[in-house]
Every structure is written in C-alpha cells, then in structure tokens.
Write a structure and sequence with these properties.
This protein has about 525 residues and is mainly alpha-helical. Helices cover about 70% and strands about 5% of the residues. The longest helix is centred in the first third of the chain and has 145 residues, at about 5-145. Mean pLDDT is about 80; it is low at about 195-205.
C-alpha cells in the first residue's frame, strides 16, 4: 500500500474518532437536559402535592377544632345544667333546714313551757307530800297514845301476823300451782299422744301357725306322701315343718311355729305341685332354691321398711335382721309392721315435743330387732337387740331404746320413753294382737252392760279401747254423792267379773238440763 493510502486511512480513522466523540458529548448533553427537565417536573409535582396535603391537613385540623369546640360547648352546657340542678337542690335543702330550724324553735319553746309547768307541779307535789307526812306523823302519835305500844312493839306484832298469813297463803299457792301444773302436764301429754295416734293409723292382721296350700286333686296327696312316705319325710326334713294331709279335700296344711320355715315350706310345696316332679332329690333342690328366694325377700323387706320409716341408711346386717321381722309374730301381731308403726308414732311424738323425729323413728323401728334372733341367742329380746345394735355401731339412744322400752332399766334418754309409749299404743290398739274384732266388741259390750245394770245409770259408753267407761247418771234419780258411789261400785264389779290388762277408768257424769220454749 502507498503512503498516501495509509495517510488517508489514518485521517479517516481520526475523523471518525473525533465525530464519535462529538456525537457522544452531544448525546450526553441531550440526556442531561432531559434529566434536568424531568427533575424540575418532579420537584414541581412534589411541591403541588405538598401544597395539597398542607391544605387537607389544615382543613382536617379546622374540622377537628370545630368538633372539639362543639363537644366542649356540649359538655359545658351539661355542667351548667348540673350546676343549675344542684343549685336548686341546695335551695330546697336550705328551705327545708330553715323550716326544721323554725320547727325546732317552736318545740324548744313548748318544752320550756312544759318544764316550767312541771317544775311548778313538782313543787306543789312536794308541798302536798310534806303536809301528808305531817298528818301521818300526827296520826301515828295519836295511835301510839291510844294503843299504849311503842313503834317497835307495833311493828313486831304486825310482822308476826303477816308472817303467819303469808306462810299459809304460800302453802296454799304451792299446792294449787302443783295441782295446776300436774293437770296441765297430763293434759298436754294426752294431747301429744292423741295427736300422734290420729296422724298415723295402721291395720294389723293376725297370722296363725299354719299355712294352707291348694292342690289340683286328691291324687296329688299320694304323690306328696310318696312311696312308703319317703317324699313327705324328705320334705319335712329339708324344711323343718310338719305337713298335715287329712281328709279335707283340695288342701294340704303346713304347720310350724317358725314363720320363715313355714313360708319356705309353703312356697317350695307350691313349686313342687306346679312342677309335678316330686322326689327327694327334686325336693332338696326346690327347698334350697326357695331358701335363696326367701333371703332376697328378707333383704327387700328390710330395705322397704327402712325407706318407709325414713330413718336414713342402715348397715346391711341390720337391714337383713330387720327384714326377718316380717316373718316374726308377737301375740299374733306382725313384728315388722308393729316396728314401723312404733317408728311413726315415736317420730310424731318427738316432733310434737321438739325432739329429733328422724332419731325417734330410728329408735322405734329397731326397738324389737332382737326378736329376729331369739332362736340364735339366749336372753330376752331387749338385751339381744341392744347387744346386736351396739356391735354394729348404732347411736346410744337407739341401743338404749331397744334395751329399755319395756321399763326394765332406768331411763336415761327421752327417746326410750317415746318408744315405750309408741310400743304400748301399737300393742293395745284394737285388732293389733291376739284379741279378734269379735272378742273386742264383746268385751266393749260387757263393759257397757255391767255399768247399765246399776240403778240410776242412764247410759254407758266404753271408750279408749275399753280403758275408760263414761257413765251418764240420771240427774232426777241421783245426787252428786250417789253418783260417786255408783262409779265406785261399777269399778268394784269390773274387778270381780272381768279379766283385763292395765286399768279401767270409770267416769260418772251427772247433769241437769232445763229447757224453755219461747213462742
């Protein structure tokens, strides 16, 4: 290549570089202008936005100021109203105080006037008293001169006379008050007892020592007896009862003094008759099964009695022993029903006199529990029952009621007295024990007929289950003295003619009635 060409190339390169540099600088200048323009626009826009924000903030501040001013004015108005009301209230109170002050001034004025009048009266009373004292002294001197006694001698004579009169009067008053207190106590006790008996009344049915079982036909008697009597012997041995099979058609009789064994035998024999398979092995099986059922019946009976009497929880052994009383009788009276009745009577009497009714019912329910164990222990049922209850942690009141309800020991608890009273009421109620209704009515008729057989008797009524007889005497044919004699003679005739427990009270009533008719 020639030098001219090289120079041309170098020159072209230099020119190109210069042009490129100029172009770059021009472009940079354009960019710088654009950036400045954009920056000015951004600043202008920011100034506009800040001005808008400043205006909005000023508006919001003005609105809040207006709202606060309105709230302040409202609160100020409320305070002004409250102050106004308080001011009116204070004005009213001030007026009331002024009225009260005026009233007090009036009362003070009245009191001052009353005090002046009272002082004047006191002075007048003192003057009168002094004059009276002078008169008394003069009269006393005159009496001393007339009687010839000194003041000490007269005082001693008067005191001795008063001592004698007061001693006699005190004795009369003591006797009269004792009589009144005794009558009131007897009347109150009768009312409490009668009220309790009226609130509770229970019927009793007497049980015998035999049970009758119906059989479908007389052929069943032979099956019960068995070959050579082996079935009946096995049955009697397993149950401990006597089976009576006689010519009476359609029945077999089971006899035993133990009601539990008799009930087991009755139920077992009914099962055997219904089953039809009667042989020694089957008899033992049925008797054992029936014994288990009776134990369940005993437990249920004890629980029912506990719930019925409302005595709270009882230990399981006591409940079981209580249930056995269902099959026990005393003078043909069911002991469990008797115990429940005594529980209610004792509880009601306790409530009447202000004692614990629940504790009294508990004492009454368990007082005869010893009768359930008579065949297992020696001694009377009160001691047996008390020992049994004590072993099982019963209260001292309950133990003492079981031990002393027949008055065999000294009474330490009032509940024992209530149980004894309930026991006597339950046992003496008509139809409760051995005496049947027919015999009871017959005895009442005998009491009335004996009384009516005396001269001067108009009518006679047996009351209180035969423990009292009310006799109405003929007023025109008797006097008060002869009426008293009639009562005495009737009582002596009862002693000669009748046999009865306890006492019979004969009350003779004689009255005269006058009638007049206005037409």
């Amino acid at each position: 290549m020639s030098s001219t060409q090289v120079f041309s190339v170098v020159a072209a390169s230099v020119i190109s570089a210069v042009l490129a540099t100029v172009l770059i600088k021009f472009i940079d200048r354009l960019r710088k202008k654009d950036a400045e323009t954009e920056a000015r626009e951004i600043v202008a826009r920011a100034e506009r936005e800040s001005a808008n924000l400043r205006k909005e903030a000023e508006l919001e501040i003005k609105e809040r100021a207006i709202q606060q001013r309105a709230a302040g004015e409202k609160e100020l108005a409320s305070l002004r109203q409250e102050l106004h009301e308080r001011e009116r209230s204070l004005d009213k109170r001030q007026d009331m105080l002024e009225q009260q002050t005026q009233h007090l001034r009036q009362q003070e004025s009245m009191v001052e006037k009353g005090q002046r009048k009272l002082a004047a009266r006191i002075q007048e009373q003192k003057r009168l008293q002094e004059e009276l004292q002078q008169v008394i002294e003069s009269e006393r001197e005159a009496l001393h001169q007339v009687s010839g006694l000194s003041p000490d001698e007269a005082r001693n004579i008067l005191l001795e006379k008063l001592d004698g009169e007061l001693a006699q009067e005190a004795g009369n008053r003591v006797l009269r008050f004792e009589k009144e207190v005794t009558e009131k106590c007897d009347k109150l006790a009768q009312e409490k007892l009668i009220t309790s008996m009226q609130r509770y009344a229970a019927a009793h049915t007497a049980e015998s020592t035999t049970s009758t079982i119906d059989i479908p036909n007389d052929e069943m008697k032979g099956r019960i007896i068995g070959r050579e009597g082996r079935n009946i012997r096995a049955f009697e041995k397993a149950t401990g009862v006597d089976v009576i099979i006689d010519d009476t058609p359609g029945v077999v009789i089971v006899s035993a003094f133990d009601p539990v064994r008799r009930e087991v035998a009755r139920m077992a024999l009914q099962k055997l008759i219904a089953d039809g398979r009667i042989h020694p092995a089957r008899i033992e099986e049925i008797v054992q099964e029936t014994n288990e059922e009776i134990e369940q019946v005993v437990q249920k009976a004890g629980e029912e009695a506990m719930l019925e009497a409302d005595v709270g929880e009882l230990p399981p052994k006591i409940v079981r022993m209580l249930g056995r009383l269902r099959f026990r009788t005393s003078y043909s009276q069911n002991v469990l029903r008797h115990s429940i009745e005594v529980a209610f009577l004792a509880g009601m009497m306790a409530e009447e006199v202000g004692l614990d009714g629940t504790l009294a019912r508990r004492c009454g329910l368990l007082h005869d529990i010893g009768k359930a164990a008579d065949h297992e222990a020696e001694g009377g049922h009160p001691k047996i029952g008390a020992d049994f209850l004590k072993r099982h942690g019963e209260n001292p009141e309950v133990v003492h009621a079981a031990l002393g309800h027949h008055d065999d020991i000294r009474i330490d608890h009032p509940y024992t007295v209530l149980v004894a009273a309930g026991d006597a009421c339950s046992a003496s109620r008509p139809g409760a024990r051995r005496e049947t209704l027919e015999r009871y009515i017959k005895r009442m008729e005998e009491l009335e007929s004996i009384a009516q057989g005396f001269d001067g008797v108009e009518q006679a009524f047996a009351i209180q289950a035969g423990r009292e007889v009310r006799v109405l005497a003929q007023a025109e044919n008797t006097t008060d003295e002869s009426a008293a004699k009639i009562g005495y003679e009737i009582a002596r005739e009862y002693e000669k003619s009748l046999t009865y427990p306890g006492e019979i009270k004969v009350t003779v009533v004689r009255e005269i009635r006058h009638q007049a008719i206005a037409k």
